[in-house]
UniProtKB/TrEMBL annotation:
Gene Ontology molecular function: any one: sarcosine oxidase activity
Keyword 4Fe-4S part of the UniProt annotation: no
Cofactor(s) recorded in Swiss-Prot or TrEMBL: FAD
Keyword annotations: FAD, Flavoprotein, Oxidoreductase
Protein's organism: marine metagenome
Protein name: FAD dependent oxidoreductase domain-containing protein
Length: 212
């Protein structure tokens, strides 16, 4: 490979849910991009791999997720139209816990702050509506009608196939080992050699702290 073919506008490290969508979005904008994953794509070790993942508008962790989630819903719908395939199934979702728990109170707070529709269900109502649940009396649920699930592996493979069609290079089993910035960009090293890039985007999930 010549040295010029190893120069990229962006190198994305980690090709899970975050990395695959990043590669597509950048390739769509005409960027020359390279995606690297240390394992197979997909692999069973990352946190977005597997057949399904839950999606909902309000997460208990912080209300600041909600604008991002509105955008995510729009992008999943856009992807469904592009590939003519259903990826996001809206089934309704419940976030359950004791009244003072962060799961219950954090979700309700986030819904209130951003006017997200929800219902509060007591344990009896939850168990009746969702026969798979068998909660104790003191468990409360925040039911979000917009919640559901994504076909996670299919989402990743769809984004990667579209990104490849747009010219993205994607290498499995090629870990980032080291990176350093210099005056013209960033140099990264893998077992296969050296790449230069204007931007380095770390989407390595729980491995990210080892790389930054
Ligand atoms: C078991 C589990 C279930 C979850 N369920 C949900 C859910 O239902 N709904 C929800 O919203 N969230 C859920 N989460 C959280 C959510 O899945 C994650 O936050 C999200 O998927 C992370 O995606 P990611 O692309 O950042 O990371 P990952 O999917 O983990 O991808 C990181 C990738 O980086 C690669 N990598 C690591 N180091 C290197 C390196 N040096 N060089 C190259 N590649 C590297 C890895 O191989 C991996 O493929 C769950 C998390 C877990 C762990």
């Amino acid at each position: 490979m010549s040295s010029t073919s190893r120069q990229y506008d962006a190198v994305v490290i980690g090709v899970g849910g975050m990395g695959s969508s990043t590669l597509f979005q950048l390739a769509k904008r005409g960027w020359k991009v390279l995606g690297l994953d240390k394992y197979d794509i997909p692999n069973a070790l990352g946190s977005s791999h597997g057949s399904t993942r839950i999606i909902r508008l309000a997460y208990h962790e912080h209300p600041s997720y909600i604008p991002l989630m509105h955008r995510a819903y729009d992008l999943w719908r856009e992807l469904e139209i592009t590939i003519n395939e259903k990826l996001l199934f809206t089934t309704g979702s419940i976030s359950c816990g004791y009244e003072g728990s962060s799961m219950f109170s954090g979700t309700r707070y986030a819904c209130d702050l951003h006017n997200i529709p929800y219902e509060i269900l007591n344990a009896r109502e939850t168990n009746k509506r969702f026969p798979g649940c068998s909660f104790d009396n003191n468990i409360l649920s925040v039911y979000q009608p917009n919640g559901g699930f994504l076909r996670a592996d299919r989402c990743i493979s769809a984004y990667l196939s579209l990104a490849s069609d747009l010219g993205a290079e994607i290498h499995a089993r090629e870990p980032l080992q080291t990176w350093k910035s210099h005056e013209n960009g960033i140099e990264i090293t893998t077992p296969n050699g050296i790449y230069n890039t204007s931007r380095l985007i770390i989407c390595a999930g729980s491995w990210a702290s080892k790389l930054v």
